[in-house]
Amino acid sequence: MQRTGTITAFLVLAAGWIVSADAQGIFVPPPRAEGDVLDGARSPAGPVAGSLETVRTLRGSELTGRVVSIDAEGALVLADPLLEFTGQVAAPVRTLELVRLAAATQPEAGPDTVTITNGDCLLGRIVSMDADSVVMDTPSAGQVTIQRRVVAQAAFQGKGGGLALNSDFESGRMDPWKAVQGDWKIVRGRITCSARGDFQALSVRADQQDEPVTVEVAVEGNSMDEPSLIVSVFCDDPEQRMPFGRNSVWVSFDADDDEFSSGTSQNGNQRPLDRQYKDFDKQTMTAKLTYDPKTGRLRYWADGQLMGDVVCKDKPAEGKYITVGSYYPCSISSIRVSGGVLAAEEGGQADSALAKDAHLIQFNNKDRLTVKQVTLADSAFTLTTAAVGEVKCEAEKIFGIVFNATGQQPPRRQANDVIVQTSASRLTFQLKSMDGQWLVGHSDYIGDVKVRRDAVKSVKFNLYSE
Predict the structure, then answer these.
(1) Same domain, 179 and 325
(2) To 10 degrees, the CA torsion angle through 176, 50, 5, 22?
(3) Cβ-based neighbour number of residue 103 at 10 Å
(4) In a designed cystine with 237, which of 79, 246, 251, 343 is the match (CB 3.0 to 4.6 A)?
(5) 407 in a domain, yes or no?
């Protein structure tokens, strides 16, 4: 059955259910008493009465209403869909791509961030850490214990801080990003551009680009094109009509042509650094780059796969803007910018402050120290160095930790994994159920997990179906 955003062909069963002809789509029960659900129980009020939520299937069909429940073994139930009937709709979980929920709470607050090797990110307050685990209090999932083997880095942005610019397109706000080229609009919680051929760009002022910077963009192509994106840092003239600015360091993520490249722009002249051709047959992409202005080291990834690792010898001396843009129609769900955090081997042989087989400690005063062990207890760090042994340090003096990559592992993938996105955190886990209060599941690196439903913005399904 061909679908174009609406339900077009059904078979009516004797039991009164309406089923898509290929048995892969939407099930609609006949209306019963007001408030009834499929099993005869009364429909719960849900976290935000009257708020609209959206369900999108893998084939592009969308329904809007209020999500009553999700059972990973069976179906999602949507109440009061905006169709020409009253009642409820059920869709098998195996057919779902994305569910957007009506998060009711204020944006998450928390001074610390833990980044997982698969790209997950948790916001909250780090309580303790040792060689085996990191314990964190989070606003959406309570206290969690994260296995250290999957932790890539920790940032203490509330303790001295650094550059931190996260988008909030879900709320309909473009700030702090500004459209400097092309026509950008926020549609259904994403910022979109529709023109083809002319470069369209967003920019944000980032005055702290004297420190390392990480930019991560979640982008989706349209029905004709896979995602294509150009990200520039240290850009000094974002409104000049060229994709890279007059002076900048840039990365081009062209998934449509399976081409990934990087370079610098100097007085408008482009100097390529590298170019890779790798198969990328997906409609969505998480594009990420890290750049250290001190060493000129640039690295970039697509969906966690390292695409390039180069050193910019002719790097720009200054730049106050970060830009994100495309020549093709696309939609961007989130942009995250953070400063001060490097990968453990950043800087290479030339940087004596770094060691390949050690953890990197970054202090608020920009000093760096490599250590063999790091623990946190009672708001104080114990740092074990090769030169002087143990060193005590107040937690407020440390800005970030990049953990030694040796021994790190990505979380194991499970067939029924979902990605749960809150206002500032992302978690990957096996979803077991959802009701009016909680999303319940199991994570490879946290264990059993419960996330407050009113903190969740979206749930992405069928992650590894391609």
Answers:
(1) yes
(2) 130
(3) 25
(4) 246
(5) no
